[in-house]
Amino acid sequence: MILRKIIENCKITDSMENNILNAVDISGISYNSRQIKHDWLFVAIRGEKFDGHNFIRDAIQKGAVAIVHEKQFNKEQIKSFNPLDSEQIPIVFIRVENSRKELACISNNFYGKPSEKLNLIGITGTNGKTTITYILKSILELWERKVGLIGTIQYMIGDDIFPAIHTTPESPEFQHLLKDMLDAGCTHVISEVSSHALAQYRVDGAKFKAAVFTNLTRDHLDFHKTMENYFHAKRRLFVELLSSDGAAIINIDDIFGKQLYSELLPVRWLSSTLNILTFGLQPGSDITASKINFSYNGMNFLLQINDETIEIDTSLIGMFNVYNIMAAAGAAKSMNVPLNIIAEGINNTEIVPGRFEKIDMGQDFLCIVDYAHTEDALERLIITARELLDFNASKNLLISKKGGIITVFGCGGDRDKGKRPAMGRAATSLSDFVIITSDNPRTEDPLEIIDDIEKGVVNKNYIIEPDREKAIIKAINMAKTGDIVLIAGKGHEDYQEIQGIKKHFSDKEIAKEAITKRF
């Protein structure tokens, strides 16, 4: 693609003449100098650990013919980078104010603006994103649409599965995925959109037809610093990236959801093309639920969408999944999916890997693996387990009132330290017994992380076992008939990172092996 076309509508501070921009043909783009090939464009971005400007020379040696950069270079410095003879076209240097932001613009142009030919749906919020994408995918596929999915667990193009590097990849990978999905015949793409991705402009340039706001609770403050910054990152999806004729689906039971709704109302008044759908259990929601019944095998309830009601009978469990279902139903409704398809698609959704996933080896207690790694998610997880205890006891089923909740959890290293005592408080106040262990310590000392957790404990109903495998085994071995063992924090993840080194580690595999050995 001609370089001038690639930088079209991007905010350029300084570049060479049009005749040179028209003469340079670009065959690839990257922000990683190690990926650069002949006739590629290299974008130098300032990362958390590395500055791409330090790798410009490496990129040129590998074949880069154009450089996008923030740093100011004088003519002599640019000349020193250029290995070509004066008769040849020089390396093109293009200066911008924000390399990350223009990387998104460049990526969108290079891959042909694929989102404009797709129904792109973005899901953002602290908790629930992954489950909502799976529910919505089930609904849309039942509606006979080919669906692409970009998320925490994996990327999917129809039935083809690819490993997920990030919840939301960097802009070149994101736009490349959209292009691949479009070429494969996808009509709809559902993407989790993380706060990091929004703050770092990874999805800028994409046109979202619908955006879902799930909730906002403390997380990632090591990156965002304040809840206000965290909210404003999420807010970008709705006020900057959502199509003017798109749909916003918002949880108004959440305080930040209410704030977002109030900010979008004037936009709807000014432009009647913006569709806002609210969901929640409070009166006045466009989408709500009633007559909710939980059981060991799932739940059923009535789902009301405006003036119409459908019955839901799903294998998903917990009040948090009621909210996830309402969110997915709202997104589907905004796409004009018939109500009977919405209901059947919800009911057909299987358990999402690592999200309240039952480990059933025939034991006489319930074992659950879940991704809960924030105070709010952990609290909801334990409350859901308590509801199951009460329900099954009242129905005289497998779990009796004598059963208790044993929770195994830790906190990640090199991440928001403020949530650690809050998670310790939630676990010890709501569980019958807690084993505090490691999650992904990364470069931190596991015992120092555990010490932070201990600062929030409110009961003495816990022990410390830094070795996560031993902690899981202890929980399994102490469980009695009717108990619920909750293994929280890692969910679908199949690795543990200690001192920067990743090794294979699966909560599910450890739990299955421990249960098998015990029985």
How would you portray this structure in words?
There is one protein chain. A hairpin with a 2-residue loop joins strand 8 and strand 9. This protein is 37% helix and 23% strand. The chain is built from 18 helices and 24 strands. The longest helix has 20 residues. The protein is globular. The protein folds into three domains: 106 residues, 3-Layer(aba) Sandwich (Udp-n-acetylmuramoylalanyl-d-glutamate--2,6- Diaminopimelate Ligase, Chain: A, domain 1), CATH 3.40.1390.10; 236 residues, UDP-N-acetylmuramoyl-L-alanine:D-glutamate ligase (3-Layer(aba) Sandwich); 162 residues, Protein-Tyrosine Phosphatase, Chain A (Alpha-Beta Complex).
